[in-house]
Amino acid sequence: MWPKDVGIKALEMYFPAQYVDQTELEQFDGVTTGKYTIGLGLSRMGFCNDREDINSLCLTVVHRLMDRYGIKPKEIGRLEVGTETILDKSKSIKSILMQLFEPHGCTDMEGVDSTNACYGGTAALFNALDWIESSAWDGRLALVVAADNAVYSPGSARPTGGAGAVAMIVGPDAPLVIDRGIRSSYMKHAYDFYKPNLKSEYPIVDGQLSIQCYLGALDHCYQTYCEKVKKKYKKCITMDSFDAFLFHCPYCKLVQKSFARLAFNDFLNTPKDKVCEKYPDLVKFHNVKPEDTYTDKDIEKAFMSLSKANFTEKTQPSLFLPNQVGNMYTPSVYSGLASLLVNRSIKELAGAKVAVFSYGSGLCSTLYSITITKEAEEGSNLMKIITSLSYIKPQLNARQKVSPADYTKVLEWREKNCHTVPFNPQSSIANMFPGTYYLEKVDEKYRRTYKRV
Prior knowledge:
The protein is an alpha+beta fold. It is 35% helix and 20% strand.
């Protein structure tokens, strides 16, 4: 028999304790007022100084999750990590995390790292789900970690950075159930965003191609998802079938355009006679080919206007963390899930159907869905996961604001010392959140040592 209601049983978010204000960054960069805040939909951007790296981010979020939910190391049978921030070409971050389990005698633990841009976290989640639903499952829980430090070279892409980590416990009888057997994926070869220079943290980005790849992947995943549901359950799917939509979020305005894109897909799937009746002003768009419309501003504008009210209701609540922290890469779509859980009442969440679109450049993408349990009473698993996220807003407000000039110096210092050994970090640990792991040193053999605040 299948394990019952397999999904997310616990969720922990971590973001660094410092940020740069996007309005101040606009002034510093000498760009038009509102370019980052209105044009991209961003307010603040979290970032790592030289005390934090991908290993410390993962150590912090896992330790916090275990403590907050009272999970014992022996309860974990699989540990999966998704990231695109690589410090070592051989040694997995999962092996670094074993420092938290080995002292407890817990070394029988499957899983390693998954890498493909922002999609790695979803790949790790699916590996965990597949393990629990396989003959190899031994009854223990799976732990999924997604983390990244997203930084860009000076220029138009720099304000779309961010940093953070998410940890999730996956198992049966979950309050956030991953719908079984109806996810759809779209994978192909593209050079829209990639990191070929192993001596640099910065990617090479083709911005226009990246947006086209993202929207094209969304089109294909949504259409395939609809076809699979129709074949399996003999029912038609539209946006009305979902109570919320979560998207990987490079920046918030792209998410709004993506929501409008789904409305455009529903429009194309509507018979022409009904289109004439329901959308007389849009009939001229009904015979177009989707692949010819990715740069069509008239279609974009029309469907953003048409879908605005639904976007505000179904997706805007999920953009809270992306707006305040920025693009976390692999944790991005799951920061949207955390945002939804802290911005909706439990009555609104209970029984909701949530669509999730995960995208990673290069490219890999999947659309799947989550059904939230209807059990909303005090002491329920749903109430527990929501209550456990109550620290998010206070910690966001407790962060230290750093000037754009000092932020730029931090990135220059990181760039100068990328893969330099031996290395001793210079930043203070005084403002870090309690329980945060930090880099103490890197020795002459590239071995990294961490301590905890």
